[in-house]
Every structure is written in structure tokens, then in C-alpha cells.
Design goal:
alpha+beta; 3-stranded mixed β-sheet; 2 helices
């Protein structure tokens, strides 16, 4: 899915309420695909998903 020569990273912003579901995707899979997950709360700053 990703080009081995590409350093591209992608960010997926999801509602904080979906954090548990998003965390079910293993960190190694997200790294391999070049995807960072950020959680969006109802109030406050956006923050990365803690692995």
C-alpha cells in the first residue's frame, strides 16, 4: 500500500470516543502503513493516540 521509497506519513484524526477501537489496530501495522492516529476530544487540544 505504501511505496518503500516514500517517507510520507498520514494522520487519521478520530473522535476520542473511538480511541479504544482505533487502538485495536496494532502499532506495528500503523507504523508499516505510515499512519499516525490523533484523538479529537469534545473540548481541548487534539492529541496522539498513546501506544
Amino acid at each position: 500500500m505504501t511505496d518503500a521509497n516514500s517517507d510520507a506519513m498520514f494522520v487519521l484524526a478520530v473522535p476520542e470516543t473511538l480511541g479504544a477501537a482505533t487502538a485495536r489496530v496494532p502499532a506495528r501495522v500503523r507504523r508499516k502503513l505510515g499512519v499516525e492516529v490523533w484523538l479529537v476530544p469534545d473540548v481541548g487540544p487534539v492529541h496522539p493516540l498513546d501506544d
